Amino acid sequence: MNLSWGKNSVRSWREYRTRQRAALRESNRIRHEDEHLERSLLADLLDGDGDTDGRPGETAEGQPGEGRATAAAGAASGSEGTTQFGEMGRPINRHSPFYLGFVGALGALIAIGLWHSLGRLATTLTILVVALFLTLALNPIVEWLGRRGLKRSLSVGIVFFGVIVVFTLLGLLVFPPVITQGTDLVQEAPSYVDRILNASWVQELDKNYDVVDKISEEFNKRLTDETFISSVLGGVLGAGRAVANGVFQTFTILILTLYFLASLPKMKRVAYSMVPASRRNRVAQLSEEIMRRTGSYAIGQVAIATVNAILSYVMMSVLGIPYAAVLAVLVGFLGLIPMVGATLGAVLVCMVAFFDDPRSALIAGIYYLIYQQIENYVIAPRIMQRTVSVPGAVTVVAALAGGTLLGVLGALLAIPVAAAALLLVDEVLVPRQRHQ
């Protein structure tokens, strides 16, 4: 087997070298023919009088008779490949391994540079994708208002005003309790610490392993460590910078969404105009269906998150878990993330409930364990199947794959991408396979 592979490799190399020599000979033949043609034209020019307009003393370029010899000499010099700095060498053989390797390496370097440039633009591209996603999610509402006789500009203004009102109400619902209850938490922190230290299992650990003294010693050591303090301050400043960047990016996304909503028909017309006229109608129809499915998916995901938030608020109110309103809003926002969002919200609720009453945390955990199974495998697949026409199994697999590849953004976009892919398969690939 190795011997036959070696013979095939030698044969392939010989064939490559044969083609290379043939290409080089053809290139040299064409160059020699061009040089012979130039010499023939030069000889005709020197033998003839060169008149073109009936005046015997001028050439075709209007040069005087004395300058004709100079031009002829320059042409002869150029035809022979000789300049004032010496004779020119042969042109580079474009089939040589050196030339191929150099061009290939240059192309690879350019590709790497473009990849790094895209990496630096990751934040900008993320903002752009999120703005487009929100645009496609709000566009069905804008078109619904347009069908009621409103102009698009007025419809966009109404929808955007509604979005601002919703975010404002959520902020008024969340921030005052967070500030008030955060202050209470800071004031009650010493009592929480005393409660933990006076617990029987902590007393038993301290009796056997002297845990409290070791923790106090380590805490005091950290407080006197300048490196630790600087790292903590740096982390606080970094967190503040991250919050400021988040606010700025949110504002940018809202502004881009407003612009995209206002100019979406024009954007679509420009995009469709770049498609060949013979396929423009079909591309437009497929694109409109993909955008419709994307908007429907966003509406369906908001519906799922809203159901989760409302049921969570009812459950927390029944069990007496504190901060029920704030936690319900957080559960709703986290529920926008398919598959894993509900789990994150459940963990957050159970952690808060555990510090208030461990039995409430246990009941909340059992509730979320049952609810998530119903949501992931019953509610969400059925809603997505009605809105974006994606089978339940594909919904689950797409959400897991998108979250693994691109995190939260990938999980949000996975199902619309899966819907678009299924549409292209049904409308493009399958009919083409039938006619082959």
Briefly summarize what is shown:
It is built from 13 helices and two strands; from the N terminus they run H-H-E-E-H-H-H-H-H-H-H-H-H-H-H. By secondary structure, it is an all-alpha fold.
What is the CA–CA distance across the termini? 38 Å
Note the run of SSEs as H and E.
Answer: HHEEHHHHHHHHHHH
For the CA atoms, what is the radius of gyration? Answer: 37 Å
**How many individual helices?**
13
Question: Which segments are poorly predicted (pLDDT under 50) over 5 or more consecutive residues?
Answer: 49-79
Mean pLDDT: 75
Inertia-based shape: extended
Into which percent range does the helicity of residues fall? Answer: over 70%
Please describe the biggest sheet, giving its number of strands, its sense, and whether it closes into a barrel.
2 strands, antiparallel
Count of distinct strands: 2
Written overview of the protein:
The protein is mostly helical and 436 residues long. It has 13 helices and two strands. It has helices at 2-47, 65-79, 97-120, 122-147, 152-197, 200-209, 211-223, 226-273, 277-319, 324-334, 341-356, 358-387, 392-434; strands at 82-83, 86-87. The protein has a two-stranded antiparallel sheet with strand order 1-2. A hairpin with a 2-residue loop joins strand 1 (82-83) and strand 2. Helix 4 (122-147) packs across helix 9 (277-319). The longest helix has 48 residues, at 226-273. It is extended, with a radius of gyration of 37 Å. Residues 49-79 have low confidence and may be disordered.
